Amino acid sequence: MEETITEHTYIALKPKTNEPIIKGTRVAVRAVAELWLMGAQPEEIILNIPHITLAQVFDALSYYEDHKEKVDFFIKSNSIPEELRGTSLSR
């Protein structure tokens, strides 16, 4: 998979969608940002996503701050619709 390099050391863009991910993984920056927005500290994020490093978490959060509108678009695009939350489809 050919990734596009960004100005952030650990962040690349997925081909076709241009969604920012942690380079060399399938972890989207939005996943890190969503945990952080829910109140998780960076050290807690690596407990939830153990195959990434603390440096990668901080770079993902830095990328989020630099590109909030783009990442928020991916968060919204991948969220479960309100009417489906709490149903067996969202578990």
What general outline do the C-alpha atoms trace?
globular
Number of strands: 3
Tell me the fraction of residues in β-strands, as a range: 5-15%
Number of domains: 1
DSSP helix count? 4
CATH class: Mainly Alpha
Question: In terms of per-residue confidence, which ranges show pLDDT below 50 for 5 or more consecutive residues?
Answer: none
Order of helices and strands: EEEHHHH
CATH architectural arrangement: Orthogonal Bundle
Record the strand order, biggest sheet. Answer: 1-2-3
The helix content, as a percent range, equals 40-55%
CATH topology: Arc Repressor Mutant, subunit A
Based on secondary structure, the structural category is mainly alpha
Q: Average the pLDDT over all residues and give the rounded result.
A: 89
The CATH superfamily is identified as Winged helix-like DNA-binding domain superfamily/Winged helix DNA-binding domain
Major beta-sheet overview:
3 strands, antiparallel
Structure description:
The protein has 91 residues and is mainly alpha-helical. The chain has a single domain (4-81), classed as Arc Repressor Mutant, subunit A. The protein has 4 helices and 3 strands. It has helices at 29-37, 42-48, 54-66, 68-77, and strands at 4-5, 11-13, 20-22. It has a 3-stranded antiparallel β-sheet. A hairpin with a 5-residue loop joins strand 1 (4-5) and strand 2 (11-13). The chain is globular, with a radius of gyration of 13 Å. The chain starts with a strand and ends in a 14-residue tail after the last helix.
